[in-house]
User: Fold this.
Amino acid sequence: MQKFALLSVSDKTGITEFAQALVSQFGYTLLSTGGTAKLLRDQGIEVTDVSDHTKFPEMMDGRVKTLHPMIHGGLLCLRDNPKHVEAASSHGIEMIDLVVVNLYPFEETVARANVTFDEAIEQIDIGGPSMLRSAAKNHKDVTVICDPTDYPRVLKSMEAGELDSNFRKELALKVFTRTSAYDGAIRSYLANQGNQDELDMDSISGFPATLNLEENKIQNLRYGENPHQQAALYGGFLDYFDQLQGKELSYNNIIDISAAAYLIGEFERPTVAILKHTNPCGVASADNLAEAWESAYATDRQAPFGGIIVVNNTLDIDLAQKIGEIFCEVIIAPGFTEEAQQFFAKKKNLRLLVSKVGFGPDTLQEIRTVPGGLLVQDRDQKRINPKHFEVVTKRQPTDLEFRSMLFGWRVVRHVKSNAIVYAGDEKTIGVGAGQMSRVDSSRIAVWKAGEAGLSLDGSTIASDAFFPFADGLLAAADAGATAAIQPGGSVRDDEVIAAANERDMAMLFTRTRHFKH
Assistant:
């Protein structure tokens, strides 16, 4: 009896070798579509187009090609049910015994910066999930593969004899896990396309009535935040990064890398950020990364030990040599020159990561566990629009002060509350994070600037939330700040504004708070 295998893949990793084995070792006739069929033919592998098999042409730009009884009948037919077999025979439906399908890269597409809605919609796979579900439903008779890493296991089992039912069931479970996560990603994307500013809070489309979370375990981690805590990584985190070298990522590394990726997404000019325990301890932009590094590192020369360094341009040998003078855990960049890679290769444990997508404004949501439940929120990445800032003091900020405040405002929302950032022109000067009192955060920032030998004269101060009293602003003025940017909204705003006027400070209200807990 002729055996049919249907192959239609977006991720073509290993498909040529697998297809060749199916034909040469196990005598399968291959059915395929579009790019997969072309790839196999180019490699000299005989393949039948699905349209020839169904006697029905692909149409509507490929939207309709596998949605046909000749396909789904061949997948869903129960081989031990005489009525099924008779129906298939009377309609000329051939049995399809093996299916290899992976889906259009919807998640990767919508993670790209500036992807359009139409582009996202075209990456919603219809035929692929339908074939996977049909084959997985009938896994008693059909082998279904959605993950290229399973090709060797399937071939090995076939070489040893017939694939057993438990293995086919395992593959089917992987299919339903994948299609569920795929549908969830589409649902989440579409739910976030509305204008939430115009929606009633009880019916925000981005937060469904039922939250379904299904993610594959990618790997066990050595431990969690501390050695006595077990941990594992689930989902697609590793899809966003390529690790070029170094030890496996730890739980803490992954948390820090996420914070670094979100922070660097704020900037377009060449920028360097140094983070420790998710808090930025130095950030700077300049005409090139080497100059940006000097300013970022100057903010705090002690805290970066064992920290995370992230840049938004290709990292070259000049910067590599500068970074090489200190010990750090992870370096993230969109690319590394060959010379830089060779230089870092001497540090075997150093983790080098290439960020494959940008993490700009309006990406992803955050989920945190609480006793008995989950909290879900949009990330605090609303695009900053300086046109919405309001000058509330008598004195207007200078151009330099405005640039400095805007830079500090971009950084401060990535600092744990209470957060204070003193900034100069496109560089941090002092960072105070995570204190119970906003005044204490300011004192720490001033102290750290002093320890680094940096002057705060002419600096600006950014606060993630309003100054509840004038004392915090006055302390900043005493330290040398000439301008301040804050959300406003305190019942004592008038007192704070008056204090700023008395010190001839310029002050902007953003009307947007940036607590980070």
Q: What stands out?
A: The longest helix spans residues 165-191. Confidence is low (pLDDT under 50) at residues 195-204. The longest strand covers residues 3-9.
